[in-house]
Amino acid sequence: MRKTLILPEDISEITLDQYQRFYELNKREDLGPVEYTKRVLMIFANLKYREVAAMQSTDFNGVVEIINKAIETDVEFVPRFKLDGVEHGFIPNLDEITIGEFSDMQEVGTDVETLHTLMAVLFRPVLKEDFLGNYDIVPYAGTQHTEWSMKQMPMHVVNGALFFFRNLARELRMSIQKSTMEVAQKGVQIQNISKSGVGM
């Protein structure tokens, strides 16, 4: 009996885990086109190697193009999504971000290999929501219990969050630099006042 081949048509049908495995696959230089395509099918069609090996070569036609087209689908920022039946929300108030959240985001960064950890900082289960759609999420307590489950989140949510996060990181850096300069200027002013004897 021939197995029906189902491939993702856009990025919302690709999980972060699949994308990370695809990323690692693309770093390999020891695979020919056929072996490479077999492994692409194993990742995105959830097939075992023996199932792929039993397929006809015509089934391989266009597989990589279909996957690349799906991955390149344009996305928008998605603040909430469901994972295993639990609604998760992006940090709702970035002005109240904790030191723990900020330092972990800075440490993890946006490397593909650690995206699941970054997503565990940015998204957490929604606790409550008001009639205007404002919501609270579970308080931050690190990522050790949630980062691996984030590998199953859809890539369109990941990519939307990454775009938002990179803009946020840029704004935070600019804000920190501005604050540092203001503190330095105040320090110079205090030194000048001390030297001139004003207020003494």
Describe the SSE topology.
Elements: H1 16-25, H2 33-44, H3 49-53, H4 63-71, E1 80-83, E2 86-90, H5 99-108, H6 115-122, E3 123-129, E4 135-137, H7 155-196
Antiparallel strand pairs: 1-2, 2-3, 3-4
Helix pairs in contact: 1-2, 5-6
Short description:
The chain is α+β, with helices and mostly antiparallel strands. It is 48% helix and 10% strand.
Structure, explained:
The longest helix is centred in the last third of the chain and has 42 residues. 48% of the residues lie in helices and 10% in strands. With 200 residues, the protein is α+β, with helices and mostly antiparallel strands. A hairpin with a 5-residue loop joins β3 and β4. α1 runs antiparallel to α2 and α5 runs antiparallel to α6. The protein has a 4-stranded antiparallel sheet. The model has no long low-confidence stretch (mean pLDDT 84).
